[in-house]
Amino acid sequence: MQPNFLTDSPLSQQPLFELKNVTFSYANSQNQLLDNVSLSLFPGENIGLIGENGCGKSTIIKLLLGLCFPNNGTLNLFGRKVLWGNNYPQLGYIGDPSYYPGELGLPTGILVKELVQIFKSLCQQEKELKDLSYREIEERLQIPSFYESDVSKLSKGQRIRLMAFLALAKKPQLLIADEATEGLDKEGKEIVLSEVQRLANCHQAGILWISHRRDEVARLTDKVYELFQGKLHEQDSQCFDCHIETDSVNAEAKKYFNLSKDGAFQALEEIFTDSSIHKFQMTGLLQKRENL
Fold it and tell me: For residue 208, which phi and psi values (nearest 5 degrees)?
């Protein structure tokens, strides 16, 4: 089933982004990555997108960021046609920034603490700096621990944490995430996921979460679609509504909610390879649900 959220939404009359009948293939390629794809996301909606490597998930991100343009169809972001050079202060992005070899997606030749300060000034949030909740985002993501590092010297996990801070601290209306936990250890992954949940719950941000981790998608999103052979398909409505809670000797209990069958297997794989977990409880029910 090809999703189309182009009709009016009870959450808002204005979509945060809108792809309408978008077709895309790279130059000199016979492979059509997107075939007449339509998708919109409104404030407060959280949509998950899954698919095999190379299926075109990241191409959708590139289109939304203005890094490439559709062969056919229309593409709008915050009610405007997407163009390279447009400024979108309401947009936050977390993901692997290495779309092109050697690029980090972040300024280099600058210390992390300097970049953070420039970011705060650009966002004109000087008053907000007195707000403890704002400063807590830095602490929870452990940004001060690598303040004195040059951005170009950061590990991939540190870059992702820094991108998460830059995206989340400004409380965006729309958060786009592309494999946003890749390269993070388990602690870092949990921190980022928790902060994204906090944004969704407290500020009603719209979220497009792209990941091969179905447990993450189930945790953070309300609707899940798979990109396959250029088409978006609603995920099978029959799912295993699985809940898992762990008991760890070194950390707080970890909980997984509303997992699909595949998500449950991924969560169990993570549990069985974590030596700190000595007990877990799993409950589930096979049932028909409209969405994950």
Answer: -110, 110
Q: Is residue 266 part of a domain?
A: yes
Query: Domain for residue 21, yes or no?
Result: yes
How much is the pTM?
A: 0.76
Residues 39 and 82 in one domain: yes
Structural contact between residues 40 and 47, judged by C-beta atoms closer than 8 angstroms: no
Nearest Cα residue to 168 out of 123, 107, 230, 213? 123
Question: Dihedral sign, CA of 31, 38, 78, 163?
Answer: negative
Query: Helices 186-203 and 156-168 meet at what angle, rounded to 10?
Result: 10
Alpha helix positions (H), 40-111: 57-64
Q: What is the pLDDT of residues 26-56, one digit of tens each?
A: 888 778 899 999 999 999 999 999 988 888 8
Cβ atoms 120, 129 nearer than 8 A: yes
C-alpha–C-alpha distance, residues 61 and 70, integer Å: 12
Percent of the chain as helix, strand, coil, to the nearest 5: 30, 30, 40
* Separation of alpha carbons 22 and 179, rounded Å: 22
The pLDDT of residue 128: 47
Confidence (pLDDT) at 200: 84
188 and 266: one domain?
Answer: no
Domain interval for residue 287: 237-292
pLDDT digits (tens, 9 = 90+) for 157-179: 898 899 999 999 888 999 999 98
